[in-house]
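Quick log. Single chain, no ligands specified.
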Amino acid sequence: MKSQLPKDKTKQMSEHRIGISTLERYTGSDAKQFQPYVLLTNFPKYLQIFADKFNADIHQGSAMSACHSAENKLTIIDYGIGSPVAALIIDLLSFTKPKAVSSLGLCGGLRGDEQKVGDYFNPVAAIREEGTSFAYLPERCPSLSSFVIQRYVCEELERNRLKYHTGVIHTTNVRFWEFNESFKQDLIIERAQAIDMECATLFTAGFSRLVPIGALMLISDLPLETGGIKTKESASKLFNKYSDLQIQIGINILKNMQSNEAKGFAYHF
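-> predicted structure:
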């Protein structure tokens, strides 16, 4: 008589199998190619810079693209834009059990008197206005980035003498909020320092799925200021000026974590 696994164990095995299969299909990569330290991005240009830097191939899947450097224990994934796909990539990565994930993103600065385009933003927490994160934790739970990863973010920015701001980022699923006066008034009242479309989802899903994640955000525009909304032209100039540096800083952050791990430091996320 064949022994049967408990139903919950059977479900767990099935979920893992489907999760790995979906990760491979969506990214065009074999599960064994995924490295323990992962960079996430919304931009194909970032993937190409990474591939050129490490002489690695870009894998195109049905929904995302990825590039892997086994020698450097690094993977980068272009997962798309918006909170639903941000949640999806965390779900899929959870089946590979990464040691650390850092998102390389752009955000709007909401403090024009203090910030300028090209500054970095260190998000220690996010306001969950995007909705997707409610499927992972109750609304009353805060959305927090990994303190350990953000500490490395700050150390690397300071080592390179790069200006950055630390605070709360507002995550929304509304792309053209800049033309909604009621929305803008709410931003002023809550006093968030930056705004984006993924951070709260990434942090909340990461906490729920046991994926340690932080973010290195670049301020791409100052949308509350007159003439401060990002345009096609300003975005092009931004990418040309800052992309290489942001990716290198992201790589350095994860490499520094690897180096300290090799020295025996233990991380508690």
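DSSP finds seven helices and ten strands in the chain.
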